[in-house]
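Next comes this protein.

***
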Amino acid sequence: MAEPPPRSRGAIALREENCTVCMICVRECPDWCITIDGHAEHVPPEEGSAPNRRPRSTTVLDRFAIDFSLCMYCGICIETCPFDALFWATDYAYDAPGPRELIAEKGRLVDWLDGVLVPEPLDPGAEIAPEPARRRGRA
């Protein structure tokens, strides 16, 4: 079998530490093939903070799964992720004997990060476009 061309769409890889469980990828997916579960954990107050301040919390990712039997590889989840947690990986050999095995859980998605290609360098003299404010963590 011939190898796919470079930059072809293979599997979707997850950078777990970047996922904030914002659920944007889940809402924007036209196939509803992404499942995310998370829970909130309280962050201990900073030393010297006001004593009556409401406790801060952070969301922890418990489960991230993609059902590749439903996925149509459109890439909307990758494009809409404001925290760069999803990437195209070159791995495409993930066939399975049945539909249950086509559900890739968090660990498998993280393993595919090794197959993410480094972006090609910019043309000489090209300037880096400013990143939108929403992708820098601001509203």
